[in-house]
Amino acid sequence: MGRAVSVAACALNQWALDFEGNLARILRSIDIAKSQGARYRLGPELEICGYGCSDHYYESDTLLHSFQVLAKLLESPVTQDIICDVGMPVLHRNVRYNCRVIFLNKKILLIRPKISLANAGNYRELRWFTPWNKARHVEEYFLPRIIQEVTGQETVPFGDAVLATKDTCLGTEICEELWAPNSPHIEMGLDGVEIFTNSSGSHHVLRKAHTRVDLVNSATAKNGGIYILANQKGCDGDRLYYDGCAMISMNGETVAQGSQFSLDDVEVLVATLDLEDVRSYRAEISSRNLAASKVDPYPRIKVNFALSCSDDVAVPTCMPIQWRHHSPEEEISLGPACWLWDYLRRSKQAGFLLPLSGGIDSSATACIVFSMCHQVCLAVKNGNADVLADVRKIVNDEAYLPEDPREFCKRIFTTCYMASENSSQDTCNRAKLLAEQIGSYHINLNIDAAVKAIVGIFSVVTGRTPRFSVYGGSSRENLALQNVQARIRMVLAYLFAQLTLWTRGMPGGLLVLGSANVDESLRGYLTKYDCSSADINPIGGISKTDLKNFIQYCIENFQLTALRSIMSAPPTAELEPLVDGQVAQTDEEDMGMTYAELSIYGKLRKIAKAGPYSMFCKLINMWKEICTPREVASKVKHFFRMYAINRHKMTTLTPSYHAENYSPDDNRFDLRPFLYNTTWSWQFRCIDKQVNSLYFLYGFIFKALTMG
């Protein structure tokens, strides 16, 4: 009898609303799966239309085009003799569902709607879809004519059911259902389902991959079984990077691992596994078997097809492997680099321009672009024809072959140091040396003439000339003069992005890169509409602490020795006058807090859901060895004042790569007001009351101890 089943999990770089491209990638994945002997193929969540369609899900066009693609899939000879499991939105009785459509040989076997919808953080599925709340219930779905003409079916099963093939039983989960406390795989497994499938649209967050892997392995550790996870990969049109990691697990152990970061648009993972290993594993778990005897059965859709061959005793099966996780520094090097590549090739621009200040943030951004160039050259070396074709379109040279990352960097990456009278020679030299080492086309320019012209217009109109505080000016004058410099740099960045290639006799324009980190955005330590205003920002979701560690990683792995002096220099905006030729302004002094403190504030505010009072209560314990309660109260109040004053800046924040769960991105992840009462009067009064009671208590204890 058949016992060795061959199954495939796919990671596809789908693009929202790119129906033609999505269809081609799905067909290619099915073809690869079949060529490697797979009898079942699983793809990512909503792969037909692309996961990130957002409010386009409301449009009937999205539903129509999804069914048109499904018809093409059903008709294709590529999809014959393999069970295909694809994702798309489906309207059933005027309710929109996020569905899996499972078909075999031009016949739809089951449409399975999603039961638990993702609706936290970056996810808004309840905005567009309704969860299927009828457990173990199946209804008739009336197919549209475009599908009836292909399948010859008028209706198909729609609902919560499992597939019973000749040799095994398969049950479906969709993304969030794995993360839910009452995951369907629990009761499906008790009801005899041996293979669980999960189609995901799961995005990258630093240090998150192990959680997903642990969830998959634990799904079958207690209950036995085979778990197949497919995931979206790449940038499908917004801030998120879907990080692949397709995997197959059996009885609590990983047997096949896909890549987390890759420029391959299609990745197929195939594993051959012995069903008898599942059955023997389950047989000795008495608690599982007792629970199984009482479980309510699932509706079974009978499928006249086997995932195994009748004579497969000699077929080799996969053995457990150890999952290899990337370090956070490797994640920063690879994730944003792949995201930038997708954005560049799909926007059809000719490269990037980065204002390179010689500081940690812009240098880290430059290193990510350099890492992207490394990934591109490596992909071409490994025979990736898609990447080579994209490269040749970007550089407008049909014969070009990228072999050296530095040479490729010169073609697609322009860096620009924008000096003023407040800039030091040290930062200028650092920027120039880094540009030489990564190979970027580097420009040095001076903005003083533009600054003087702008300030001169103000002086002519008002009769007043603002001064820096070191020359006797007020804090308002000082800040205004800093902002003028910062905003002029933004204007010049876009001018040079549009025309630099023109001056070099090359076609196209450049995307402007921003380089404000997540901590500065949270604090609002940036000028609105300065160089933080760009087309995209690859480090906008990464903390200063992680960026410093990434810089050290680049020194060691890319041999970028110019980064050593950048690492050792204190972060500075260089917007105030120098003192004896040296920088007198530093970021942390300007902010009134350290970057390490900012990371803690950010995590407590967003992840721990702490308002001012709760944050104070947590920090008096966290910082009890280094701060008094009164000092903690002062720090918390200062943070929330600055946060409230500057929250409006988040409404215009450059779209950033999402890497941290405490990102203040106003677009969809961190939904809050941008006009606050900055006094926080009630909240701060609660803090003051608690501080006073603590000092009263400490005083009472001290008095008791001294008297005793």
From TrEMBL:
The keyword Aminoacyl-tRNA synthetase belongs to this UniProt entry's keyword annotation: no
GO CC annotation: cytosol
Metabolic or biological pathway, per its Swiss-Prot or TrEMBL entry: Cofactor biosynthesis; NAD(+) biosynthesis; NAD(+) from deamido-NAD(+) (L-Gln route): step 1/1
SUPFAM superfamilies documented for this protein: Adenine nucleotide alpha hydrolases-like (SSF52402), Carbon-nitrogen hydrolase (SSF56317)
InterPro entries (UniProt xref): C-N_Hydrolase (IPR003010), C-N_Hydrolase_sf (IPR036526), Gln-dep_NAD_synthase (IPR014445), NAD/GMP_synthase (IPR022310), NAD_synthase (IPR003694), Rossmann-like_a/b/a_fold (IPR014729)
Record EC number: 6.3.5.1
Location of the CN hydrolase domain: 5-275
Presence of keyword ATP-binding: yes
UniProt superkingdom: Eukaryota
Record-level GO BP terms: 'de novo' NAD+ biosynthetic process from L-tryptophan
Keywords, comma-separated and alphabetical: ATP-binding, Ligase, NAD, Nucleotide-binding
Record-level Gene Ontology MF annotations: ATP binding; glutaminase activity; NAD+ synthase (glutamine-hydrolyzing) activity
Similarity comment: In the C-terminal section; belongs to the NAD synthetase family.
Oligomer status and interactors: Homohexamer.
Name under which the protein is recorded: Glutamine-dependent NAD(+) synthetase
Source organism (scientific name): Lophotis ruficrista
Origin organism lineage: Eukaryota, Metazoa, Chordata, Craniata, Vertebrata
Gene designation per UniProt: Nadsyn1
